[in-house]
Amino acid sequence: MFQFTRPTPLAIANQIAAARSLPSTAPRLLSLNHTLGAIPPPSGFVHDQLHSCLGNGARAFQAAKRAFETWAPFDLDWVRVANPEAAIAPGQVVAVEVHTVGLWTLNLSRIIETIDAPSRFGFIYATTSMHVEQGEERFLLEFDDASGDVSYDIEAVSRPRNTLARLAFPISRTFQHRFARDSHRRMRVEHLAEK
């Protein structure tokens, strides 16, 4: 799963094709309707959540939805969705390419739940066996009708699957936290760009 060179477009396409027939391998832990909260995750899993306000008003919410639909939360200098044409839809395979500490990985997950409502938009994806971690991650936008605030929430429950990820667990955790922070920062930049 870890390699010294960036995956070629052909290798990415082949891995996505292979992942289409794979089930998600994570236990169902997250929901679009509520957070895991104080419930401890299963043994060996870690729970992370980061919440931020992106802006205010219906226009900001629509801009955030458009950013989600083009995978902007993953448009970072070290992370990207390798199949950006993928729709946010149940069953869709999402290939996330990551470049850290000189190594490249392509992590394949399957969208297992979505919501597209007047005040909520988002999805949960679960890892397949073609991912260095095992778990689920929730990406959710919410528009508060009373205050007009637009918020972004990332919640993840995961554990290392790959041997190298297990051996480098503290480093893996650092990059998990960095991804959440960078994703929130990217979404705030997208909001400012819409003004």
Question: Could you say which structural class the secondary elements and strand pairing correspond to?
Answer: alpha+beta
- In the CATH hierarchy, what is the class? Alpha Beta
**Tally of individual domains:** 1
Task: Please write the string of helix (H) and strand (E) elements.
Answer: HEHEEEEEEHH
Shape: globular
Indicate the multimeric state.
single chain
The CATH homologous superfamily name equals START domain
Mind explaining what this structure looks like?
The structure is a single chain. The chain is an alpha+beta fold and 195 residues long. It has one domain (9-31, 46-194): Alpha-D-Glucose-1,6-Bisphosphate, Chain A, domain 4 (2-Layer Sandwich), CATH 3.30.530.20. The chain contains 4 helices and 7 strands, in the order H-E-H-E-E-E-E-E-E-H-H. It has helices at residues 9-19, 58-69, 163-167, 169-194; strands at 46-56, 79-81, 93-100, 103-117, 120-127, 133-143, 149-160. A 7-stranded antiparallel β-sheet has the order 1-7-6-5-4-3-2. A hairpin with a 5-residue loop joins strand 5 and strand 6 (133-143). Helix 2 (58-69) packs across helix 4. The longest helix has 26 residues, at 169-194. The chain is globular. The model has no long low-confidence stretch (mean pLDDT 93).
Key descriptive features of the protein:
single chain; 195 residues; alpha+beta; Alpha-D-Glucose-1,6-Bisphosphate, Chain A, domain 4; 7-stranded antiparallel β-sheet; 4 helices; 7 strands; 28% helix; 35% strand
